[in-house]
DNA sequence: CTTGATCTTGCCCTTGGGGCAAGGCTGCAC
DNA sequence: GTGCAGCCTTGCCCCAAGGGCAAGATCAAG
């Protein structure tokens, strides 16, 4: 006959855990010896081992008596279900382990595959970190606010990166961040941007355009988180060129 | 900008979890809007996603800031360590899943491989369930009390099962459980048992015999949990035959 | 204007034990 | 026999990581 400590050591749990199982009625209280010590026999070893096996498989203690006391039919079903839950948990853990590798690359954690590809392609262009993060953060926000729209927009955006003139404009914007708003070079950048914008798809061509909030459209224009007087001025110059008659023009996809 | 509910849904957690992360200082409190609502931006999405990625990988919340704020060197080490812990946990879960299959066969859960093999071989002999469980429970108790001794004894015990006369005696004991203690057939059984015992290894031949408690030796004789007047009488008859001069004879391994 | 969903803070509840206190046993050494 | 270390007993509070509910403010839509 075993004491509680011997039983616990043999089952790989603590004596406290066994007392908890007694208190919850999961494991019957054994006989006491003359001095009040619990004394366990073979059946207690069997019962405890079954309990521990289930508990370690993630079964809540409250569910264990129902499982162990079930008749053969239901017992089999219960075990099969517990096994399948456990398989699911293992698969989840494996996926979570895979995600750990990307912990230092926020875009890989927070964006859908299309956007990850886009950001990888932007990276090789070699913009400033600040500009790249601004683009990334715009996508992260717009993906959180309107995942569907964001994913619809992405293929066209990615295709644009094959356009050397577009990439040149991106680089020019990058250079211009710190310029004064009256810098004369801004005119040339705005000219180039306007030429591109004219042959680009407009946001208003999207299906369900009327359901896209103005905020999302702003986000997709890529100016999130950068305060630049030169860029503000570039917005004005671009608007002049694109829609001379209006003062609140439609934003082009990929404008920037 | 997102509300707490939008952020939570996007990150796959509850709003309450986010408030907990704020309270623990893991995720910085964001700005509030005019009515006191929390408003989250892209950086909060990134931060939360990193936190959730670690938390779901099983990292305790208290350890998360230290991991995320570490410099590149330590960060890499931390991630590698977390990954390896996670791998270990996954392997453990797979082993636990395997054990679930044996939940209805106590000997497979509670005994070492040698004893499992022994019990499988006893099963095909076709003893009564009661007798078989008595043998099993004896091993379970002795394995819990003295695992080393029990495993040392097992090969000889298993070899005995190849002895047809020994198996015949086992079956005779099984038949005799309910007999009256003065049943004349008991004499023949005791004769056969004595012939076997004489050519068997004695417990006293074991290395470290003096460290084996008498209780363990009793357990290994296989009478655990069965109250049978006939068996008690068989014990007496056997002792007469084996050690006529003594009244407390050494128990033979495999006596039964 | 109402209604239902969402936000705020604050508080207690849960699971599966861990840890400590204060006292009683036990077994071994001296 | 006397110590003393190590085990056992009960009872109590504590922990992580939220869940749930209350009571009130706010928002969005019909």
TrEMBL record, chains A, B:
<dbReference type="Pfam" id="PF00376">
    <property type="entry name" value="MerR"/>
</dbReference>
<dbReference type="GO" id="GO:0003700">
    <property type="term" value="F:DNA-binding transcription factor activity"/>
</dbReference>
<dbReference type="GO" id="GO:0003677">
    <property type="term" value="F:DNA binding"/>
</dbReference>
<dbReference type="InterPro" id="IPR047057">
    <property type="entry name" value="MerR_fam"/>
</dbReference>
<dbReference type="InterPro" id="IPR009061">
    <property type="entry name" value="DNA-bd_dom_put_sf"/>
</dbReference>
<dbReference type="InterPro" id="IPR000551">
    <property type="entry name" value="MerR-type_HTH_dom"/>
</dbReference>
<feature type="domain" description="HTH merR-type">
    <location>
        <begin position="1"/>
        <end position="70"/>
    </location>
</feature>
<keyword id="KW-0238">DNA-binding</keyword>
<protein>
    <submittedName>
        <fullName>DNA-binding transcriptional regulator, MerR family</fullName>
    </submittedName>
</protein>
